[in-house]
Amino acid sequence: MSSAQPSIVDMEQAILRHHGAAYADFPAQPIPAPALDEPVYRAALAACSALGFIAQDADCLARAWAAQTRRLGAFDATHWPGDPQDFGLQPRPHAQPFAPCPQALGLYAVLPDAAWVGRMARAGVPTVQLRYKSGDAAAIAREVRAAVQAVQGTPALLFINDHWREAIAAGAYGVHLGQEDLDALTPEELRTIRTAGLRLGVSTHGYAEMLRADAASPSYIAMGAVFPTTLKKMATVPQGVERLAAYARLMRGYPQVAIGGIGLAQFEQVRSTGVGSIAVVRALVNAEQPEAAAAQLMAALKI
């Protein structure tokens, strides 16, 4: 590092000056207790908290900023961290990756039951997810089997949300897990999914969760919620396109899916971030003519 390193306050203010406009809509967060005593880390931690990043994400960013400074040999407030090695992501190729899926999954429809899965698969939607909620184990198994049967004869790729045992038994293409579901898996269970040949998608809502997802070497990363959504209670505020673009740069080694409050009106700005796939829920299931809506959304992805 240069001997002419600015003060902690100067570095913090430089970060805010260069990047504050991009995060103007995010309320400042409490500054967490510093985990390290390195000046760049402390400055970046304060700055990222002021930019609205929650404690665990501010810590990830601050550590990455410190690593970037060590790697470059000087502090650079203009260069938002985005190098996988500065965040401690796994080197590629991964030692134990899940089976790969297409780099661009296209329109990704998240659907409530097998009937909807079949309907959208027949409409030409390339990627479909069964998100079936029930406390009845037998009903879950039946619905997963029905969804697998519903996509037969179509090119649609079917992911099952949460129910990985049933997905394996039915021969689904893949499974999608949220952070809590991923964290609840034992190493043996995760290995069971991988050795069965299923693709794995993981939901993420910021830097810390992306790092946890990377540790599992999934097939794709889902990032959101990009915009406000009423479908589920979110632990974090909507991420917005600026954060999404930064996430896409960091996780560029993975196929990426943007999700959360996205409709046709938002497709262009989401596509501009470099994310290759967009997931929708209400834009299809609440549409008056779902097949026509699907065709319009797929066309928008190809513009």
- The structure class reads alpha/beta
Overall CATH class of the largest domain: Alpha Beta
CATH superfamily of the largest domain: Aldolase class I
Poorly predicted regions: none
Number of helices: 14
Structure notes:
The structure is a single chain. The protein folds into two domains: 8-81, no CATH class; 106-301, Aldolase class I (TIM Barrel, Alpha-Beta Barrel), CATH 3.20.20. An eight-stranded parallel barrel has the order 1-2-3-4-5-6-7-8, surrounded by six helices. Helix 1 runs parallel beside helix 2, helix 2 (39-50) packs across helix 3 (55-72) and helix 5 (114-122) packs parallel to helix 6 (137-150). With 303 residues, it is an alpha/beta fold. It has 14 helices and eight strands.
List the helices and strands and how they pair.
Blueprint: H1 8-19, H2 39-50, H3 55-72, H4 84-87, E1 106-111, H5 114-122, E2 127-130, H6 137-150, E3 157-161, H7 164-170, E4 174-177, H8 179-184, H9 187-195, E5 199-204, H10 207-214, E6 220-223, H11 240-250, E7 256-258, H12 267-271, E8 277-280, H13 282-285, H14 290-301
Parallel strand pairs: 1-2, 1-8, 2-3, 3-4, 4-5, 5-6, 6-7, 7-8
Condensed summary:
The chain has 303 residues and is an alpha/beta fold.
